[in-house]
Amino acid sequence: MRVVLLILILGFRNPSFAQLREGFDPDEAKALIAICNSYTFLDLYGTDTLIVPKDYRKTFTSEVIGLDNMFQVYESDKLGVINFRGSTNKTSSWVENMYSAMIPGEGVVKINNKDCNYKFASDTAAAVHSGYALAVILLSPILIEQINNLNTKGIYNIMITGHSQGGALAHLSRSYLENLSEDEISPKNKFKTYAFANPMCGNEEFAKEYEVKYCKINMSYSIINPSDLVPKMPMHYQEDGKLFGTLLFKNWAYGIEGFDALNIKELVLRTFEPVLTSYIKSSNQLIERLIATSYIQIDMPGYVEDINYFQTGAIRKLEPFSNPKVPIDTLKMSKKKIAKLKQDEDGNYYNEKASFSQHKPYYYYVAILKEYFSMDYKELDLRYLPEN
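RE: above sequence
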């Protein structure tokens, strides 16, 4: 690990934010995507001091809870930050992602024979992702405890963030917290959400209520890369025909660039929706039994008849990321193989890694610098982490 080089390239000049301001703030986005990279740096290097902004002090890291979820708490003057971890390589973490049948936006989950009331939305037609909702409910006692702890320090301005699965948890935890009673959490708390590369977490009614309550007041954002597949998940369709993801016909499965949107819509509504709804419900019942057998005893509410996910948070799109150019050692390669390789402007041979790089948190950090902090971007020697 080139520690000295990383220290040089990852310097921050971020001010502290004592008061939350309305509107998208590049400085906030820069600080939060850096904090989201904490988990990556801890995994790769054993320390996150090279990426976490110097004005932010980590004051709490939760234990691993439920389906391999955890969160961190940071403080910066009179500002608090809650940072949810994204997906890990553990089976339980991916079970959470796949547990995508929707449950009502308000109801009761029985966990280890105890009733846990929850409310993510007031609209009775609102529905949310089962796996992410369960994660928020399991994390909520410690989450509320930590928010109350921030309040004892006079901190009521709190930003909620996360990358990937962590971004979905950021949006859902925001709606969960905002729907708690004054007996459970102080009404003085003011929240602002920045989710990065987040999958969708609710249906149209949930998304509309979320937009009215948090996006129209300019206090919730989803920052996505259009070339990243994760924000297009779970499987879904959009009835206006503009975005069709149930089988991802257009760009993923078959690469079809032109099709009749109305015919596709009819195909989905009349043919695939009943089949997919039945499939998702049955598969999620299996997942529910797996969770109960392997992790915790749960009794979920009945699934709703809806498989159509909508994005939440005011969308801010970044430019698609440049794929990393990984140097190749050509000393033991034949001239024939070398002739087929790509060369950079300095004549060095490289492989271009596409794979999952459009989703990685460090690329989102680099893209934020490129979009809003041109000088910092120009001074950045590492555009990707070699170990990542």
